[in-house]
Amino acid sequence: MRRRPGIGGLQNAAAARDQYRLLGENVAKLRTDLMKEQLATFRSQLEDFARKHKNDIRKNPAFRAQFHEMCAKVGVDPLASNKGFWAELLGIGDFYYELGVQIIEICLATRPHNGGLIGLDDLCKLLGQRRKAVREAISEDDCLRAISKLKVLGSGFEVITVGKRKLVRSVPTELNKDHNEILELAQAQGFVTVDEVQRRLNWSSGRATDALETLLEEGLAMIDDGHRDGKRRYWFPCVSSVSTYVGADTL
């Protein structure tokens, strides 16, 4: 028969558990303190790096993207505020604020032609045209970061992926799977027909027509009935070349 431990044995076991617990807490605290110390060192080195290369960060889009990656790894968000060290040193907050305002203006100006859905590459081209006088090159990464800050406006700004292309949506229109498939199909030539949608996607005539008419009502499509074959073309400016935007040179 197994003998039960006496009171002394239980007390010793409890004391041992307490010692192990305290030891574990001390080890965890040491690790936490060490990590905090390392992060503080990294942040200090990052600030030194930013001071040394601030011109490159401001003027070189690729270098700026790499800098943001470095910041993310040590938990620093240079875009979090227009005030403070990073804004004073690099003017990053002001840069993305200005970029965000210009993105809004371009989206509003092109909305009558694309229904509030514009290709990210087209948006960057229009921004480049608008910012020629500034002489600060911008990249898609810059546009994406600026758009991410526009979400706080609650005005529907977001980036969606259709096929291999990124589109910027500036209206709260919800696109379903059928709409996305049509937009992806239209990327080949800028337009589709009901027959083409039926054939390529293996849909019924009613399904194809319903989806296309919804996109037309939302302002994302334009119709062209002037062809000899009598087939209506549904054109999608959001997946067409930037040159199709009326007045693009005046933005």
Verbal overview:
- It holds the Pfam family EAP30.
- This is Vacuolar protein sorting-associated protein.
- Component of the endosomal sorting complex required for transport II (ESCRT-II), which is required for multivesicular body (MVB) formation and sorting of endosomal cargo proteins into MVBs.
- This protein is mainly alpha-helical.
- 59% of the residues lie in helices and 8% in strands.
- A hairpin with a 2-residue loop joins strand 2 and strand 3.
- Helix 5 (92-114) packs across helix 6 (120-130), helix 5 packs across helix 7 (140-150) and helix 9 crosses helix 10.
- The protein starts with 6 loop residues before the first helix and ends in a 16-residue tail after the last strand.
Short description:
Component of the endosomal sorting complex required for transport II (ESCRT-II). The chain is mainly α and 251 residues long.
